[in-house]
Give the backbone structure.
Amino acid sequence: MCLGIPMKVLEVDGFNARCEAKGIEREVSLFMLQDEPVEPGDHVMVHVGYALQKMTEEEARSAWEMYDLMLAAADA
Amino acid sequence: MAEEARLWLERIRALPLRRRVRLMNVCGGHERSITMAGLRAALPRDVELIPGPGCPVCICPEEDVYEAIQVALHEDVTLVAFGDMLRVPVNVPRGEARSLEQAKAAGADIRPIASPQEAAAIASSNPGRRVVFFAAGFETTMAPVASLLVQGAPENLLMLLSGRLTWPAVAMLLDSGTPGFDGLIAPGHVATVMGPEEWQFVVDRHGLPAAIAGFTPASLLAAMYSTLRQLLDGRRFLDNCYPEVVRPGGNPTARRHLAEAMEVVDAAWRGIGVIPASGYALRPALAARDARRVFPSYADASRKRAGEMPPGCDCAKVVLGRIYPNECRLYGKACTPRTPVGPCMVSDEGACRIWWSGGVRDNPAA
């Protein structure tokens, strides 16, 4: 459950954001990041529907490389 | 494997290790990355990677799962829980529901969820019905649960909380005198929320090297290199190999929410026992939402093996890093992901389940 998913912020509406990863969109709570500005285009580490922290696009990409590997292993 | 990971691997291979070194990780996500990327086979023979207490589902007290099953069966409620929890077995006489999944089959209204917000949404759309959120998890999961409560959840949403803090289990291992490891790979997302400082005690009090790692092979290998290098150089410090999201002090908002909604209490870990100041409980101000206060306790002192792992199951030793998953007699024999006996084979974060997914099929114990 500690496995966070890096997602890209598409739209911000108050404490909620529509985020995207791998073509899948999800509603994500920004309530734990309320003291930091979060804007469309930002990347966030999401865990159980909550953004834990902001991250750079490059960091998000390297995390996704790992998950691709895991998804491939899970499909095998 | 990415170029950066290869570089770290080469650096590790170049280290003049002269004895066996055991590095423990305490995060199911770390163990999954290590196993799926095949890091054990890639590392020098003298480096042992031990999965430790990193699976909240595995250490969730058997009594709590039993309580959740009974509440779902006997109270007029909808019970929601993270999907993993539904298949965790408890010790009951034949014929009784031994998991939430079986209680659901017996007619209880039990639903799997993936987020605390889903629990709130189910409560919102069923205003006349009490919804009990059986929430097990470490700090990474408890902070969102606390956030939901601080932000304001529907009044008919009750909590059956089974949250735990990760560092006290490591402290318990270190205080035992036989920790079974020489260096610690500390959990990246726990440190993201709580701050890296929580792990400083490993260095200061116990003189062991520690490094916080992320979840890519590169970040994990960097953390391993750091701890190995510290051992060789005779230096000790807490390294942060996941600076992308792990910042000093962690996420202050998340910590504030945790402190506002929950208090830290002594708590039981399945197969391990009570660890001081290692659990989360709802604050008295939230008593009206606390399923433990609202409903009578279903604890049954005469129930056989209450609190224990199932018969023959070595999950307790696996969780403490005393044995590897495939050193359990049941691994891959009576216990597989299809027919799990112990919680470590149920949860996606359980070491047994991860090793099985990673293709480990041999069992030297059987």
